[in-house]
Amino acid sequence: MCEGEYESLKEIYQVSPDLVPKPFAWGRYREPQPEIYFLLAEFRDVGDQSEGRVLKPCLVHGDCWDGNTAMDIRTGEAFVFDVCSFYGHNEYDTGNWRAPRHRLSNKAYIRNYKKAFPVSEPGIPILSHG
After folding, report:
1. Average pLDDT of 22-37?
2. How many CA atoms lie within 13 A of 1 on its CB side?
3. Beta pairing class for 86-88 and 58-60
4. In sequence order, what DSSP letters do the residues of 4-47 get, joined into one string?
5. Weakest-pLDDT range from 66-70, 81-85, 119-123
């Protein structure tokens, strides 16, 4: 993952250096265990953009759309697959749901999602962002 991020930053930086931090290197730490990688890039101070809000990252699916969800025929329970999980904003996965072509854009999915994961401050409803 670090290599992909590094190579992506490097290519973007070559054509538009003001758009991304300058990438310097990526690699694996020398210690064999645990397997840990790093990405080294230019530091850019963005100041405090949180307006006092605090985000507690949570584990998200990373690519949650109807093509990666199904119902177990034996139990009737919903499940997800083809994950690329990471810790991020609890509403990250709802971004794909905006497109009307996805069945997850149905209001019933949004209501159930909000039961498990309340809308974050400042309380802007899911799917009304941007």
Report:
1. 91
2. 7
3. antiparallel
4. HHHHHHHHHHHH-TTTSPPEEEEEE-SSSSS--EEEEE------
5. 119-123
User: What gap in Å lies between CA 74 and CA 64, rounded to an integer?
Assistant: 22
Grade residue 68 by pLDDT with cuts at 50, 70 and 90.
confident
The Cα–Cα gap between 62 and 124 comes to: 21
Extract the tokens encoding 115. Answer: 């039961």
Query: Rounded to whole angstroms, how far apart are CA atoms 119 and 122?
Result: 8
| 107 or 23, which is more confident | 23
Considering the entire predicted model, what is its pTM?
Answer: 0.52
Q: Which of 41, 37, 43 is nearest to 1 (CA)?
A: 37
Distance CA 19, CA 8 (A): 12
Say if residues 3 and 26 touch (Cβ distance below 8 Å).
yes
Give dist(CA 14, CA 5) in Å, integer. Answer: 14
pLDDT of res. 129:
45
Tell me how far the alpha carbon of residue 125 is from its chain's centroid.
18
